[in-house]
Amino acid sequence: MSNFFDDISDNAKKIRDSVSNSVSNSIGGAQKQISESTDIIRKNIDQNIDTAKKGLEAAQKQIQGVAQKTTDVLTEQTLKNALAFFSSAQKGSEAAKNVGIWLWEVLKGDFHEDPTVGQVATGMVISMIPIVDQICDVRDFFACSIQVRKKPDDNLPKVMMVITIIGVVPTIGSFAKGMLKIILSVLRRSFKNVPTNFHRLPAFDKKIDETLEHALKQVRIFLNRADVQKYIQFKRIGDPYKFVAGKIEVLIIEANKNSLFVIKQAKTLLAKFDKLIGYVQRMGGNHRLVQEAIAEQKKLQDFVHNKLPTLLKNNEVHAAVMKILRKTQRRLEIESDMSFRATVNTKNLDKVWFPYLDELEQMKKKTPSWADKNVVLKNPAHLNAKPPEKQAYFLNQGYPDIGSDFKTFAKNAAKATEFKEGEVLYRVISPGSADNSVCWMRKTEFEKLKSKDDWRRYFAVWGSWNSNGEFVTYTVPKGGLKAWEGKAGSQVLDTAGRKPQTMSQQDWNEKMEQAKEFSLEGGAIQIVLDPKMLQASNISARKSTGWGYGDNQLGAIDMVGVPVLKNNVK
Asked: Which keywords, in A-to-Z order, does the entry hold (predicted)?
C-alpha cells in the first residue's frame, strides 16, 4: 500500500511540475509576445511623435517667418516715420534705398550734427511716434562719446557727456525730460566751438547764463503750444518751471550720491543703441556701412564698460556738471517767480511804494527816527556823475561807468574794487524791486543792521525808493566782479524825486524848498555795480529781513495780493 501512495505522490509532483512548466512557458511566451508587441507599438508611437514634432517645428518656423516679415515691415515703416523727423533721405541716395543705412547715417549725424532746437521741442510733443525719443537720446549720447574720443585732453566734452546721460533719465518723467532736453540741446550747441578746457576759464560761468537765457526763449515757445498746455493741465502741473527745477534737484542728489547712477543710465542708453544697431544689421544687408556701425558699437561698448567709470572719478568733470545743473535749476526757479509775477495785478505792486510827495508830507508832520531835519550833513554826497579824479583811470580797466550813481557815494569815497570768486554780496529789496539792480553791500555790513531804521539811515534809502522787507544774495562767480565801493553819501529829500507832469513848476519849486530840510545820514559801506555784469543764476532765492514790510513811521501799506519772496530779474 505504501508503494502505491508513493507512486501517486510522485505522479502528482510530475503533473504539478509539468503544469507549472507549461504555465511558466505559456506566461513567458505571452510576456515575450507582449514585450515584442509593446516594442512595436512604442516604435510606432515614437515615429509618430517625431513626425508630429517635425511638423510642429516646421509650422513654428513658418509662423516665426511670417511674424518676422511682419515685424520687419512694421519696423521699417516705423523707422521711416521716425527718421523723417530728423531729415529726409536724398532721392537716389543709399539711405533712400536702405532704411538700415538711413538709420545709421542719422545716428552718426551724417545729415546734420544735431537736430535744431525747434526739432527737439517738436519731438517732445510728437514723442508718440515710436523710436523718435530713443533715437534722440542715443544720437546725443553717441555724439558726445565721439567728441570724448576725439579730444582726450579736453574735459569739456566729458562734462557734456555726463550732462547728456543725466538729462535723459526716464525716472523724472517725460515732461521734465523733454524740457531739460531742450535746454541741454542749446547748451551743447553753445559750447561746441569753445577753446579746450573752456570750463576752467572765467567766461564759462557767464556763457552758461547767456546760454540759459537763449534756452528759456525756446522753452517758453514750447510751453505756449496748445498741445503742451493741454498736457500740463491734464497732468496738473501748475508751475512747469518749478516742477522741472524740482526734478533737477532729484538728479543732482542722485548724481552726487553715487557714480553708479550715471553708469546705470549710460548702460540703459547703450542697450538702446545696441537695439538700433540691431535694426541697422538686419535691414542694412551686406552694405559696408553696416560693418562701420558694428565697429562703432564695439567702441561705444568699450567706452561705457571700461572708460566711463574712470571718467566719473574726475572731480573737475563732476564739479563742472554740478555747476551747469545748479545754474539751470536756479534759473528755472527765477523764471517760476517771474511767471508768477506776470499774473499779478500791477496795482498790487504799486501798493508797496511810498509816493515821493506823500513821503514829504509825512516828513513835515513828523520826522521819522531814521531821518534828520535841518542838520549839517555828515557825509556830503559826491557831486559829479563820474568817479573821484584819482579813480577815473579804472574806467579803462573794465570797471563799470555807473554815471549818476557815483552821486550816491560820499564825496570822493567811491573806490574801484574787484570782488573775488565765492564772495557773497547782499541787497535789501521790496517785493517790487529788481533783484539785479545797482546797490549792494558786503555780508559784514548786512549783519550790522539791526532794523529797517538802521538800513534807511546809514545806507540813505528813502521810503519812496525802496519799501524793504526782503533781501537776496549774489555769489561772485569765477572771474570775479568789478564794482565801486565806499561810504554812502548823505541824501537830501529834494534830490530824491521827480516832478509830476500834472504839477506846475512853481508848486514843485515850493515843495523842493520844503524837502531841503530833510536828510539821511549815510556812512555805511555800500557797493554800486552794473547789473549787466551779474549772472542771474548766481542770485539767491529771496528771504525775509525779519523787519516787516513798509515803514510804520511813514504809514501802513496794504500787502493783500502782493507777491512776496518772489525773484524779480530784469
From this structure: Coiled coil
Residue 474's φ and ψ, nearest 5 degrees, are: -135, 120
Residue type, 403: G
- How far CA 556 is from CA of 275, 287, 497, in Å, comes to 68, 81, 21
Q: How many residues can be counted in the chain?
A: 570
Residues 6+ apart with CB under 8 A from 390: 412
Cβ within 8 Å of residue 541, ≥6 positions away = 333, 472, 565, 567
List, in sequence order, the alpha helices (H) in 191-225. Answer: 203-223
Cα gap 126→137, rounded to integer Å? 15
Rounded CA separation 353/350 (Å): 6
Burial (CB < 10 A; 0-12, 13-18, 19+), residue 435, is: buried
In the numeric block, which cell numbers belong to residue 569?
Answer: 530779474
Task: Tell me which residue of 319, 474, 488 sits closest to 413, measured CA to CA.
Answer: 488
Q: Comparing C-alpha atoms, which of 143, 164, 139 is closest to residue 83?
A: 139
Task: Please report how the helices 117-125 and 203-223 are oriented relative to each other, as an axis angle in degrees rounded to 10.
Answer: 40
Reported as a single tens digit per residue, the pLDDT across 538-559 is 999 999 999 988 887 887 666 7
The answer to whether residues 537 and 212 touch, using CB atoms and an 8 Å cutoff, is yes
Q: Residues 477-501: pLDDT tens digits?
A: 999 999 999 999 999 999 989 999 9
How many other β-carbons are positioned within 10 Å of the β-carbon of residue 151? 14
CA angle 346–352–358, rounded 5-degree value = 110
Instruction: Estimate to the nearest angstrom the gap between the alpha carbon of 326 and the chain centroid.
Output: 8
Domain ranges, ordered by start, for the chain: 1-86, 94-342, 346-544
How confident is residue 57, by pLDDT bands cut at 50, 70 and 90? low
- Which grid coordinates are listed for 394? 579804472
> Does 19 score more than 60 pLDDT?
no
Q: For the whole model, what pTM was predicted?
A: 0.78
Task: Quote the CA–CA distance of 201 and 546 in Å, as a whole number.
Answer: 39
- 108 close to 87: Cβ distance less than 8 angstroms: no
CB atoms near residue 179 (< 10 Å):
27
